[in-house]
Amino acid sequence: MAFAAEREGRGASIRPSSVVDGVYDSIYHRLMSLEIAPGSRIPIDVFARDLGVSQTPIREALSRLEREGLVRKEHLIGYSAAPQWTRKQFEDLYVYRLLVEPEAARLAAVNMTPDALRQLENSAADMGHGEAPVDRNTRYSRFARADAQFHDAILKVAGNEVIRSTLSNQHVHLHIFRLMFHTRVTQEALEEHENLLAAFRAGDPQAAFDAMRIHIERSRDRLLSAFE
């Protein structure tokens, strides 16, 4: 099903400081909010008219989104939104996350420095008190991006690049947040992040392990309703 552009509440064109970045942000928010439904075609000409730009920045933005796993390109067909995850894919992912991310949090607590902790605290603060969303469609997409950065920062401090690159290549948080749009998430996740930060401040590896395990288990439980 092709995406039908909705102009209500938007200007006919965008005027960002960088055209490609502006186009990317617009399409990203629509993908994350499910305004562009999983599996639906993304006609370049329609988006160019809707955003008031040429087709070139649309193609560049879609190529970036393809690298992030949010869109797919097929020969002779063009771009479409990535399909939604199946329950099996979701369950497999969470089995993996529970195997590796608590251990990564433990390693991060061992390796934590004052500068790294300060960066994590700033990331968590931005998530909770960042710029207000322009509209309801940007609320979770912004949180998803910030959440991905927070978790990646923990993995970076942990120092295990195999775990970090594997989770990054799966684009875990972007796909998870597409599942949970319109559900409760932000406040509960923020509270769980604060528990992680408390463990890092205390320099307690076991507490960090436990806090990450609980965070992932609760995230899994919040999302199961998406498959019912």
TrEMBL record:
SMART domains: FCD, HTH_GNTR. Residues 17-84 form the HTH gntR-type domain. Signal peptide: none annotated. One of its GO terms (molecular function) is DNA binding. The keyword Hydrolase does not apply. InterPro entries: GntR_C (IPR011711), TF_FadR/GntR_C (IPR008920), Tscrpt_reg_HTH_GntR (IPR000524), WH-like_DNA-bd_sf (IPR036388), WH_DNA-bd_sf (IPR036390). Keywords: DNA-binding, Plasmid, Transcription, Transcription regulation. This is Transcriptional regulator, GntR family.
